[in-house]
Amino acid sequence: MIELGLSRISRLVQQTSLSWKAIHIAGTNGKGSISAYLSHLLTSGGVRCGRFTSPHLVDRWDCITIGERVVQESLFRQIEAEVKLRDQTLGIGASEFELLTATAFEIFHHERVEVGVVEVGMGGRLDSTNILKDVLVSVIAKIGLDHQALLGNTIEEITREKAGILKSGVPCVVDGTNSSAVTTTLEDRIKELGIDATYTRPEAPDEHSPPLAQLFSKLDLLPHQQANMCCAVSALKFAMPKIRPDIEVDSLIPQLSNVEWPGRLQSIILQPLATRKEPVLLDGAHNVQSAEVLGQYVDRRLRPLGKPITWLIAVSSGKDVNEIFHPIIKEGDHVATTAFGPVDGMPWVKAADPEELASCVRTISGVGEVRSFGTEVVDAIDWASGEANGGPLVIAGSLYLVSDVLRHLREARDPSGNVH
Question: What is the domain range of residue 384?
Answer without folding.
Answer: 266-413
